[in-house]
Amino acid sequence: MNIINIIDLHCDTLYKAATQGISLCGNEVEVRLSRDKTTHKLQCYAIWLPDDLSDEQAEDLFFKSAKLLEEECRQNNIFLIKNNYSPTIALNENQNSAFFTVENAKSLNGKLENISRFKELGVRMMTLTWNAANKIGGGADAASNAGLTDFGKRAVAKMETDGIIIDISHASQALFYDVAENTNLPFVASHSNSYKITSHRRNLTDEQFSVIRNRKGLMGLNFHNEFLNNNSQNAGMTDILRHAEHFLSLGGEDILCFGSDFDGCTLPKNINNSEDFAKIYELFLANNYSESLIRKIFYENALNFFENFDNLRNM
Predict the structure, then answer these.
(1) In sequence order, what are the residues at sequence separation of 6 or more whose Cβ sits closer than 8 angstroms to the Cβ of residue 99?
(2) 85-118: per-residue pLDDT in tens?
(3) CB pairs under 8 A, 24+ apart, for 240-244?
(4) Label partner for 158 (CA 20 to 30 A): which of 60, 76, 249, 295?
(5) Where are the extended beta strands (E) located within the chain?
């Protein structure tokens, strides 16, 4: 088959490289910064900040990782998308390009000024929490009423002002709805699936999905086996299709995309690395998805969102 276009909203490859001292282009990673044989890719590289790090350690790892990503992109002639540069141009002119994102706003270390510093380094999207609570608010494992803190309310306002997209994957339900109430711009769930299909606390309810849809945000399908199938050992590519079909039935044609979680999850059967997006493409074709809809899910929805976000912010 021909090389396919793909925008992937989430992988943990940068954390793996930064903490294990390996290359982003090495055989040890599931998403290689260097070119895949089957994809024309814009990859969001998240630096994950685990909950067991102190805020100071998380801040240090963020800056270490920012330097690593920039150095490896330069050494391997990979385009790193920075501020005020069109993702469309990046995708059209480069076999591989990269966005820098953050998983867990613990990395702010309680400093609102770090939001502007992160933006200057190219951060385009930030997951507010991981599974525990932080100074922003509650994650998926936090108390059910752990919504936005006072600092969190100031932080999401500053993120909107500075143009960093808010990502609510890993959020508690209270945090999710507080974000919806205290923000104006679209927000995303970069790597979450449907709770209706797989009843895992990290997945989103139909009501939450509807909030994101009505805001014209994004919903990135996650490949972690426990989020795909209630019997995780049986998870396979067809479960990705099941979650996609459910979200499409809820009106998700213009917001559905991928957030694979490569290098940060237990993959389902028959998926080994990012080159297997080609297999998923073929699966969708085999199940009578039109090529126009597949293009939307694989890259056009995410591309349109990124291109339009700054226009919405400046209205």
Answers:
(1) 42, 43, 44, 45, 81, 87, 122, 124, 125
(2) 788 888 877 778 999 999 999 999 999 999 999 9
(3) 240/268, 240/280, 240/283, 241/283, 241/284, 241/287, 242/197, 243/193, 243/194, 243/197, 243/198, 244/284, 244/297
(4) 60
(5) 4-8, 39-48, 79-80, 96-103, 123-127, 165-167, 188-189, 218-221, 256-258
Spatial contact of 138 and 146, defined as CB atoms under 8 Å apart: yes
In this structure, the dihedral spanned by the alpha carbons of residues 254, 272, 53 and 182, taken in order and rounded to 10 degrees, is 10
**Cβ–Cβ < 8 Å for 72, 40:** no
For residue 26, count other CB atoms closer than 10 A to its CB.
14
Task: Using the CB atoms, write b or e for 64-86: b if 16+ within 10 Å.
Answer: ebbebbbebbeeeebbbbbeeee
The type of residue at 74 is R
Q: Cα(31)–Cα(11) distance, rounded to whole angstroms?
A: 8
pTM for the model: 0.96
pLDDT in tens, 219-274: 999 999 999 999 999 999 999 999 999 999 999 999 999 999 999 999 999 999 99
d(CA 63, CA 65): 5
The letter for the amino acid at 25 is C
Q: Which residue has the tokens 């769930």?
A: 189
DSSP designation for 36: P
